[in-house]
Amino acid sequence: MQQNISAYEEERRAKLERLRELGVDPYGKRTQAIVPLAQIKASYKPEMGHDGGPIVTGTGRIVLKRDMGKLSFLTLRDQSGDLQVALDRKRLNELAWQVRGLLDLGDIIAVSGPLGTTQKGEVTIWATSFALASKALLPPPAKWEGLSDVELRYRRRYVDLWANPQVMQVFRQRMRVVEEIRRFMNQRGFLEVETPMMQPIAGGAAARPFVTHHNALNIPLYLRIAPELYLKRLLVGGMARVFELNRNFRNEGISPKHNPEFTMLEAYEAYGNWETMAELVEGLICHIAQTVFGTLRIEHKRPSGEVVKTINLTRPWRRVRLVDLVAERTGWNFDGRKFQEARPEIREMLKHHGARDTALNLSPHEQLVETYEKLIEPTLIDPCFVTHFPSVIIPLARENPEDPQFADVYELAINGQEISPGYTELNDPEAQARHFLHQVGKEEEKQKFDEDFITALKYGMPPAGGMGLGVDRLVMTLTGAESIRDVIFFPLMKPVEKGEPPKP
């Protein structure tokens, strides 16, 4: 039990005890069928008049309460929307009228009565009976829209969802996006599969893993950073098209674009390549935008409604090689044979934009990628497939046969961030083993040498294309959310310090 009880909670606890004295269970009402409030509201017809509609039952949380002597108006809210309820002294028995005086904002109630309207035309349930389903002991914050304490909204999402309809709308849209991903992939013959989330070797992407321990086997295990190596094993096993909507875990920083736990779509197609994967993801995102949001022109708006950015998803999307895009934007004509490649002014720009390492010991290929990620990617608002990245930083992709220093891959950028990588997958076991041994990058983030995966490739994996799609970032892009925490129900937050006073 919380030790520091506020005056607001004390007042509500007193009402709770009074309800029990009246023989009312504050947590007891159960309805046989729950009809969304929006559906009840939409069922009203003008011929029903003031209170001549059918008897309906609605449940919801009280978000507005106005007492007017012998008449009280409540606004109930559920995930579908709001609906007004009228509590009229003439229609309720004595007990119900006493309970009316003990209701607070945040309480959940079930109401029955004829459907009608007020004199001003507001669709209303004229209650003939109601009952508490749950008494709220804590009041909703006065200004929950996030202007006063954004962090508190993330920590108490369970309040944010019902106090802010826009937040509920974003998460309903997110669920629709996931539904459409599954529908789209199934219609194209991809099988949804499940692969291990705890793995003996962390592989499939360059990232620092979370480490745990299995007591019975006395071995370390890793929360997966990607399902790639297991999905490719299924290609070896004879599955031609597979996908997984998976949770990935990367022991890295938190930012508006990063959460340590996130959702990815990952898909592989036998006899595909990076180009078929680009077509797949382009079609998928356009399908989602049109089906869920009804448009291919996505507007990002301020709370005032002012449009600050428009993303045009109209096909076809641009495809451009990395070296050509860098030359176009910076004038640097890359030549990977020259060490200390980048010109001094480009290194200064990289340093100014926070490149992770601008020392001269960066390889030319790393300089090229840093230039793209720091100077160019944030400016790519409309969709752009940037293709053919250096093969030394992408050990799981096939080298381009015409220029082996580059891999046959794409990175899809939308809204200034990477949304989807796609590869022509490497299926040569000897080349894959060499790539694992000679990849570049931070030592703790390199792909570990997975001998069983090499063994699987020795049995023969067909040529294939593979792609990933960041679901959280896609939802950010399509809803206009500015932070990944706005599209994840419960983002990771720094724990509240012990002894910190609770917020109302």
Number of strands: 19
Low-confidence regions: none
> How many helices?
14
The biggest sheet, with number of strands, parallel, antiparallel or mixed sense and barrel status, is: 8 strands, mixed
> Average pLDDT, to the nearest integer?
90
Derived from helix and strand composition plus strand pairing, the structural class reads alpha+beta
**Broad shape:** elongated
Helix content: 25-40%
Cα end-to-end separation: 16 Å
Q: Beta fraction of the residues?
A: 15-25%
Please state the CA-atom Rg, rounded to the nearest Å.
28 Å
Major β-sheet strand ordering:
7-11-12-19-18-17-16-15
List keywords for this structure.
504 residues; single chain; alpha+beta; 5-stranded mixed beta barrel
Describe the protein's architecture and organization:
- By secondary structure, this protein is of the alpha+beta class.
- Helix 5 packs across helix 6 and helix 6 packs across helix 8.
- The protein has 14 helices and 19 strands.
